[in-house]
Design brief:
The protein is α/β, with parallel strands linked by helices. 26% of the residues lie in helices and 19% in strands. The protein contains nine helices and 14 strands. The structure holds NADP nicotinamide-adenine-dinucleotide phosphate. It comes from Canna indica.
């Protein structure tokens, strides 16, 4: 069986991966760090725009709920049950079990539009955290200084997952009248020659960008979060940075904790300032700057619709 590897997105923005250490991180069993954001129920209710004071609590589906960021979002939604009814979509029974196996976790494959209908029916908002995942070809020996090679499994190329799969989700969500779709994408999409596009010949950033454009053109209120390199670190302890057009990639601040991305996904549902916006997201190193707690102010800084 091929060794599972996860590409460390955006670790080397200006040159192709040349070694084990700068191109990939070994897949680890997800161990999400607890968020350090503490929002009281009342302040969250005040901030909520999806959850109207006298209306029903909105149902929010997160797809890729077994993934490393998706499972943090799912957990946070469950923890805020005064504010959201959580739902998750995973691909396998194994992933469902991994996140607790509750009845609110649906199984489906985003490449198959019909299979996701039960999960989508009745939702008010959708958070898309699915992505094609390249695998490393077997036989790679980092001790010999070799370059790892990656591939996508048949029918699991970015074209199928990041384009057709995201399009299927957007179409299904639109057909049930969702009030907002949050899509997590990646920085790097302005450069068609970005090294990530050559991995497994998948053109991953190009297909992700196409899905982002489709969402922006859909008419559904949207928030497109183009994350920097994702890290499994504590959340709520760094100042978050928003940007546009991959400008952050040219700086030293181009990474972000998965927990922080998860929090931004949920906060985006709570502020009008996050709607019809697309932005890059990274953070300052811990210990510099002021940890972000005012998300309305963060979203207000964003001026870009795409
Ligand atoms: N890694 C980085 O540094 C980085 C940087 C910037 C942006 N991003 C983006 O940020 C997002 C979150 O990244 P992550 O590392 O947290 O994600 P991840 O752990 O790779 O999770 C991806 C999820 O997509 C699911 N998926 C794949 N194909 C599917 C299909 N056909 N049907 C249903 N589900 C499917 C996977 O399900 P299974 O568990 O069943 O495989 C997995 O749960 C992704 O869009 C990623 O591209 C990543």
């Amino acid at each position: 069986m091929a060794m599972l590897m996860r590409i460390s997105f955006l670790a080397t923005p200006s040159k192709p991966p040349s070694s084990f250490s700068d191109s990939a991180t070994i897949y680890q069993k997800p161990t999400p760090s607890p968020s350090r954001f503490h929002w009281s129920a009342s302040s969250r209710r005040r901030a909520g725009i999806l959850a109207m004071a006298d209306g029903p609590v909105p149902t929010v589906l997160v797809t890729g709920a077994g993934g490393r960021t998706g499972q943090i979002v799912y957990k946070k939604l469950k923890e805020r049950s005064d504010q959201f009814v959580a739902r998750g979509l995973v691909r396998t029974a194994e992933s469902k079990e991994k996140i607790g196996g509750a009845d609110d976790v649906f199984m489906g494959d985003i490449r198959n539009a019909e299979s996701i209908i039960p999960a989508i029916e009745g939702i008010d908002a959708l958070i898309i955290l699915t992505s094609a995942v390249p695998k490393m070809k077997p036989g790679f020996d980092p001790s010999k200084g070799e370059r790892p090679e990656f591939y996508f499994e048949d029918e699991s190329y970015p074209e199928q997952v990041d384009w057709i799969g995201q399009k299927n989700q957007i179409d299904a969500a639109k057909s049930v009248g969702v009030k907002q779709i949050v899509l997590v994408g990646s920085m790097g999409g302005t450069d068609i020659n970005h090294p990530l596009n050559s991995i497994g010949n998948g053109k991953i950033l190009i297909w992700k960008r196409k899905a982002e454009q489709y969402l922006a053109d859909s008419g559904v209120p949207y928030t497109i979060i183009r994350a920097g390199g994702l890290q499994d670190k504590d959340g709520g302890v760094r100042e978050l940075l928003v940007g546009k057009d991959d400008e952050l990639l040219k700086t030293e601040t181009r990474t972000i904790a998965r927990v922080d991305v998860a929090e931004v996904c949920i906060q985006a549902l709570q502020f009008e300032e996050a709607k019809f916006k697309a932005f890059d997201l990274a953070s300052k190193p811990e210990g510099t700057g002021t940890p972000t707690t005012d998300f309305k102010a963060l979203f207000s800084q964003i001026t870009t619709r795409f």
